[in-house]
Amino acid sequence: MAKLILTPPEFQVDTFEEFLQLAEKKDFRLAKAIVKAILANITTRKRFINVMSVSIASTGETIELTADRKEFADILQKNLIHFEKQELYEDCASIKKAIEHLTLK
Fold this sequence. Notes:
The chain is built from four helices and three strands. The longest helix has 15 residues, at 89-103. It has one domain. It is globular and about 45 Å long. The chain starts with 9 loop residues before the first strand and ends with a helix. The chain is 49% helix and 20% strand. The protein is α+β, with helices and mostly antiparallel strands. The protein has a three-stranded mixed β-sheet with strand order 1-2-3.
């Protein structure tokens, strides 16, 4: 069976400050991208995974954001609340199951 390769989503913003505002406002799209990337890589042996790219129009730069495998459980726990607020309970169950899997290792 072929392994699914997840291409991290790319967020396009005019300035880096615009991206920071999305992060400060806890934009659900960011939480969703982070969780999706971690869940898709839950069994990876890689130390770091790419979770998203941020393309900044004003500078032409692209920033790759990564997550450390050692921090997966904490990151999922911090993002769980965003899924609860959106009432995405099936996703919440998947996140909780992944947290349990990671903490039992």
